[in-house]
């Protein structure tokens, strides 16, 4: 059983774990997986910013969501229940939790459970923080994952995962069953992040081209503006933050062919967006699935919009 102290890292703060950004993002991940499963595809998932896999959360968004009618039976609620089921089915509970704290399974833990259930073929996890890597190793070494441990890989790279994966894309190391998820922090509004945006421009173009050629299954990028709601609204509804900075949010979206582009935008105190790139024949069904699966959180969101 994991202990609260097992999940704490001195270099990473968990204040946002389980917030509305996490919850909708994870519903999108699971929705994509279910649609691929419906087409008899069990993808190889790659997470570029894996995080710890399991979190101790006291976030008010998570506490309120868990009390919503239908949450426990939702796609996200069922995934959380599966992750924390009693061993050997799941991780079990987390010992040592303090008053007001609850466990939250991040995408790594949920995807690892999907590997175990046979709905994913493999999971590759990247995170350049050594403290996070140590916790990831602790999580995936739990007995519930012993049967699939060989299909759960932690890539120990210490540079930016974007450059690492871009080089792998260029070398043709990903194939038609691979799904790539990118989860960077707020990078679309600071002049200091220009090089990061340029890298994402290349990533988006490369992923979109390969998905169009059926050489890659899907890719997604999570966007956050942090607490800067002004920047978010300028990007989402206006002419772009600061008039549209080079390789900013709108520019990145425009690099994807419209027939392969899905953009989900939501807000609960802060604004978030998710770009999902899929083949044209998958797009409409995935949009319907996302609409259905995110409906459970609509009562708490001031905005939930799917632009296809």
Would you summarize the structure shown here?
47% of the residues are buried.
What are the salient characteristics of this protein?
Rossmann fold, two-stranded parallel sheet, alpha/beta, globular, 10 helices, eight-stranded mixed β-sheet, 308 residues
Tell me what you see in this structure.
The protein is an alpha/beta fold and 308 residues long. It has a single domain (2-307), classed as Rossmann fold (3-Layer(aba) Sandwich), CATH 3.40.50.150. Helix content is 37%, strand content 19%. It is built from 10 helices and 12 strands. The protein has an 8-stranded mixed β-sheet, with helices on both faces. α5 (130-140) links the parallel β6 (122-126) and β7. α1 packs across α10 and α6 (161-170) packs parallel to α7. The radius of gyration is 18 Å and the shape is globular. The termini are far apart. The mean pLDDT is 94.
């Amino acid at each position: 059983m994991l202990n609260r102290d097992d999940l704490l890292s001195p270099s990473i703060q968990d204040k946002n774990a389980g917030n509305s950004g996490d919850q909708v993002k994870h519903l999108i991940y699971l929705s994509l997986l279910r649609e691929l499963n419906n087409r008899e595809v069990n993808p190889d998932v790659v997470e570029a910013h894996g995080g710890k896999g399991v979190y101790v959360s006291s976030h008010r968004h998570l506490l309120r969501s868990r009390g919503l009618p239908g949450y426990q039976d939702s796609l996200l609620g069922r995934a959380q229940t599966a992750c924390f089921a009693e061993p050997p089915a799941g991780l079990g509970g987390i010992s040592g939790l303090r008053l007001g704290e609850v466990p939250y399974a991040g995408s790594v833990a949920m995807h690892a459970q999907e590997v175990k259930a046979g709905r994913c073929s493999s999971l590759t996890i990247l995170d350049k923080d050594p403290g996070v890597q140590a916790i990831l190793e602790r999580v995936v070494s739990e007995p519930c994952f012993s049967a699939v441990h060989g299909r759960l890989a932690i890539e120990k790279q210490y540079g930016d995962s974007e450059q690492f994966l871009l080089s792998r894309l260029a070398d043709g190391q990903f194939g038609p069953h691979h799904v790539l998820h990118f989860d960077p922090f707020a990078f679309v509004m600071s002049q200091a992040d220009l090089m990061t945006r340029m890298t994402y421009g290349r990533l988006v173009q490369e992923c979109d081209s390969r998905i169009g050629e059926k050489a890659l299954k899907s890719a997604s990028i999570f966007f956050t503006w942090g607490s800067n709601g002004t920047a978010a609204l300028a990007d989402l509804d206006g002419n772009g933050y600061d008039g549209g900075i080079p390789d900013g949010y709108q520019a990145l979206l425009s690099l994807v062919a419209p027939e392969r582009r899905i953009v989900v935008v939501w807000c609960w105190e802060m604004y978030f967006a998710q770009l999902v790139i899929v083949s044209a024949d998958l797009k409409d069904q995935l949009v319907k699935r996302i609409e259905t699966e995110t409906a459970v959180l609509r009562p708490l969101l001031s905005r939930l919009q799917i632009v296809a």
